[in-house]
Amino acid sequence: MRITITGKGLDVSDYLKEVAEKKVKKLSRYFAANTEAHVTMSIEKSRHIVEVTIPFDGVVLRGEVATGDMYASIDGVLKKLEKQILKHRTKLEKRLHTDAFKNDTPIYEENSAEEEALKIVRTKRYPAKPMDVSEAMLQMELLGHEFFVFTNSGTNEVNVLYRRKDGNVGLLEPESI
């Protein structure tokens, strides 16, 4: 596994790079030898943020954790990634390293009890009145939601507005492939 460690707005010390590389390398049992892992570290106010992205075989595995300590953030993001791998184990087995699940003991997770699968607990129907993006933003604000699904009156397509972590708003528009 090839690991790239970068700092966004900070200089990453050699010791911190060494620790991060050593811990991320433990995930290599799940991936082929030529897999790349990108680790980005940053500090915003008092939050130490670690983001790990592992693109492999048409899938992108990504995790981000922010805590008050960079080392805790590294441990947290690796726990999160391993949890994702184990949760989607059956879907990913064909794409992961052939001996990835030879040893079923997780590296980072204390309890190996598998969580139950997600299930739909509620269905909500609502009238989808066509509207422009500005009206949809207003509706999202008035409802106090983190996202808003609407039919765009300009394109007649279903769009999604969502609140980003930085406080701004994002727009998802479908694109035919």
Instruction: Give the CATH topology of the largest domain.
Output: Double Stranded RNA Binding Domain
Query: SSE string, helix = H, strand = E?
Result: EHEEEHHHEEE
Distance between the termini: 32 Å
Largest sheet: 4 strands, mixed
Shape: globular
Radius of gyration: 20 Å
Strand order of the largest sheet: 1-2-3-4
CATH class group of the largest domain: Alpha Beta
Please identify, by name, the CATH architecture of the largest domain.
Answer: 2-Layer Sandwich
Fourth-level CATH superfamily of the largest domain: Ribosome hibernation promotion factor-like
Strand content: 25-35%
Q: How many domains, as an integer?
A: 2
The residue fraction in helices comes out at 25-40%
> What is the residue-averaged pLDDT?
83
Please report the number of helical segments. 4
Your description of this structure?
This protein is α+β, with helices and mostly antiparallel strands. The chain folds into two domains: 2-92, Double Stranded RNA Binding Domain (2-Layer Sandwich), CATH 3.30.160.100; 120-177, Sigma 54 modulation/S30EA ribosomal protein, C-terminal domain (SHC Adaptor Protein, 2-Layer Sandwich), CATH 3.30.505. It has helices at 14-25, 70-87, 89-92, 133-143; strands at residues 2-8, 36-44, 47-56, 59-67, 147-151, 158-163, 169-172. A hairpin with a 2-residue loop joins strand 2 (36-44) and strand 3. The longest helix is centred in the middle third of the chain and has 18 residues, at 70-87. The two termini are 32 Å apart.
